[in-house]
Amino acid sequence: MSEYKLKNYRRFLYILLAASTIALLTAVYMDYWKKVPSTIKIRAGVEQQLDFHVPASGEIYQEEAVESLSTQVESLHVNFSKGVTLKANQIDNYVMDLKLFGIIPYKSVDIQVIQDKMLTPSGLPIGIYVKTEGVLVVGIGEFKNEKGDTISPANYILQAGDYILDVNGERVENKKQFISMVENSGGEEMIMGIRRNDEITEVKVKPEGNQNGEWKLGIWIRDNAQGIGTLTYIDNDNTFGALGHGINDVDTSTLMQLEEGTLYKTEIVGITRGKDGSPGELTGYIEYENENIIGEITQNTAEGIFGVCSNEITEHTFYEPIPIALKQEVEIGPAQIICSVTGEPKFYDIEIEELHLENDNVNRGLVIKITDEELLTLTGGIIQGMSGSPIIQNGKLVGAVTHVLVQDAASGYGIFIENMLVQ
Q1: Cα–Cα dist 110/367, whole Å
Q2: What DSSP designation does 360 have?
Q3: E strands along 310-395, which residues?
Q4: Is there a contact between 301 and 261 (Cβ–Cβ < 8 Å)?
Q5: pTM score, two decimals?
Q6: pLDDT tens profile 277-302
Q7: How many helices (H) and strands (E) does the chain have?
Q8: What mean pLDDT is reported for the chain?
């Protein structure tokens, strides 16, 4: 081998070694990153053991002191290469700056000292009705005008996921009213107030006549959604949390902007068993009558739906209040869920297989697997309608079931209860 080729070969080996080293260090860094959550909650007045098995150390400061940029800030040194015990007597917020091996900048962690919480787990099936704010655009289409030309008046102006809130200054209440506005527009330009990506703006759209002489925009819209789910918990002030995930539009997958929502009594009348590759579902019977209302939905968020229960529900709960488990208290191993596939809430065995304390998808912090033979026989695993089923471990409320793994019907995901309590 010539000297020139030998130099090039050595240079290639050095580059390969450097790239491999960088890739390895990056992988190790990201693995450590996921082990410590960006927000840690601890109970006021209670010693809390934190053991994340990460070679990181740093300082804890009171949040107000950091924001004031004081030259002398009191701090507490912590070293996570071994277990750390923390205790704060008052509700407050702190910041913890960590470095790997005490040298490499790692992450800044918010520590929130919270009041201890007791919640009543439910597991009851619920009928859900939500009405959107204005009307939701779910698609843009085409139609033929009187000349036979294919047109799409709203194309490049409106888009799927837009909420039409008002037209020419008049508030849009529902789908029927909006259709009437378009039909009676006379083909005049319509000024629409819309919500797009949480921002309010105005657009102008001019309806066109179809082959029947009717004024149209060529859009598909929706103003409500219905379904069934599971009530997760009831608080001592009759507030509730359910589902563990938000109600998204089936066509656009966007979180539905809630104007009002209602919980109804529901009766499970059928079960479609899930199997690998084909999720099952619970079939419920709901009568949308006033006498069947059991609660008001006030929030539809990524972490679930929230609102206020009627006294009827709280008076007929099956279980007593229990403590919540914070993220760092949840363990890989046996647990239980509560669901009502046979008519009344019942405990079923599961296994918590993985914990993702730092997951971008807030609804998938827990990986769970159904191990209860009775539930597997009834449902095949996790099925639609079980979302919100409380997860219990060591006598504490850990979280709620959120999703099924399509390719493994017995397995799925859950949300940590502390994430639901953000609301």
Answers
A1: 24
A2: S
A3: 322-323, 333-339, 346-355, 366-370, 390-393
A4: no
A5: 0.86
A6: 888 898 888 888 889 999 999 999 99
A7: 6, 31
A8: 89
